[in-house]
Every structure is written in structure tokens, then in C-alpha cells.
Description:
Blueprint: E1 6-15, E2 18-27, E3 30-36, E4 39-46, H1 51-61, E5 71-77, E6 82-87, E7 101-103, H2 116-121, E8 131-132, H3 133-146, H4 148-153, E9 157-162, E10 167-173, H5 176-189, E11 198-201, H6 207-216, E12 220-223, H7 229-237, E13 241-247, E14 250-255, E15 260-261, H8 263-268
Parallel strand pairs: 3-6, 4-7, 8-15, 11-12, 12-13
Antiparallel strand pairs: 1-2, 3-4, 5-6, 9-10, 9-11, 13-14
Helix pairs in contact: 1-5, 5-6, 6-7
Amino acid sequence: MVQNISQTRPIVKYQNGKLQEEDDEIVTEFPITIHINGEEFATMVCTPTHLEELVIGFLASEGVILFKDDIADLKIDESQGFAYVTLKSKIQLNQQQYSKRFIGSCCGKSRQFYFQNDVRTSKTSMTKTVIKADECINLMNTMQKNSLVFKNTGGVHNAALCNPSDIIVDRTDIGRHNALDKLYGHSILNKIPVRDKIIVFSGRISSEVLTKAAKIGVGIVLSKSAPTDLAIQLAEDLNITTVGFIRGQSFNVYSHAERISSIDEAQMS
């Protein structure tokens, strides 16, 4: 059974001094539990699209796998909300770097850099990519225009894996981490090199989001929202360029600004 991305529900809306009944489109919230080698590993709450990418991206970000070939078998039962993963090698899921935990769709502390595993799997960027200021703005505008689910529901995060000039793939999810995991899973499944790529993101750049970008391996993160102080500290340490508040024709660069070129600089080069 394929789950719907959204559902139409009757609501009562207040507008212009009046209450009136109408239909509204509500985004679907879907739990999926991952079992690895017969043992429960984690439950995520997500938007039920691109579930294979989500599972693979999540396992890669947790350091369980490095490549698609590490998986002997992957079966997803959408009707029951389970993903069954068989790895080619045995792992001890009760090791210190793993912790079985419920991962919600909200913006709480569901995944943090404080886990030993996050320190182990985060990568220092070695990218040589430089992006023009107007390309930052164009990528953000394009990603936002592409998200029909956000336009219809207002209840999801958007993320895109990009070159400076265009979007390679974009994904949507109620969970900001999930949207990034889907990008990671897509790049693993399609063997897309990510070192020179850019992530464009609709939400706040928290330490968890910055860590997720570091695990994926990109060196530039663009957002329409703000970063946190810890995210900026991590970005400085991991050599990642962070750009926030991309709105209209302006934005702020918070770390490693050498990868952002202005229109004047581009014309001089």
C-alpha cells in the first residue's frame, strides 16, 4: 500500500471576521521502523516518499554502512511501516556508538553531535567549489518553487543537492533530518560524488543539520533561515561554508566566506 503525501480534511477557517467551513490539505506523518539483521534499530517519523533513500541515507549517516553494496537485502513494508535490512557483515547494534532511539519529526534534540558516532562519521570538507552570490539566490528560489507539497500544506522541509548552476535532486519531508537523509541515500544509490556539491535547505541550520551535511560530505550549506552558534563553530572546524537568511537579493555568510564570490568579483575574474 503506497501512502499518500497529504490528506484533505475539513476545517473551520477564520478570515475577514468570519468563520467558515472549507477543505484543507494536511501533510501525512508516517512512522517507519528499521530492523537490521532481525534487530530493531530505530523508528523515524517521516513523509512517506523515497523511503529506500531515507533508510539508506540514515544508515550511512549513522555509520552503519558506507556503500549500497554493504546491504545484502532491503525490504520495505509500507503497509505496516517497517524496513528490513540485512547487512553483508554482522554488527553489534548495542555498541556505545549506537543507541536505539525514537527520532521524531519535530525540531527537538533527536540527533546531536554529542553522540560518539557523530564525531566518528562527520567529515572535514576539502571542497574547492566556489559559488557566485546570484547562484546562491537562484538555487534557493528554484528549490522553493519546486516544492508543491510545501505550497499545498506548509508543513514540510525542503532540501536539494546542487551544483552551483542547477539542482541535481530535491527532496521533501516533515523531518528536516529526513530530507537530508533522502539526499544522502539518493547520492549513494546513484553513486553521485558529493565532495564538490552544495546543499540548499529551507530550515534553520542547527548543529544537527550541520553535522548531517558534514556526514554527507558537502562543503557549502545554503539556507533561507538562521544558523545557531554551535552550528557555526562546527562549520568553522569542519571547513564548511554556511550561508543563511537567503531572502530576496540578500544573505549572510557565517563561515568560510572564501567560497562565495560577489557579482563584481565574478566579473573581474
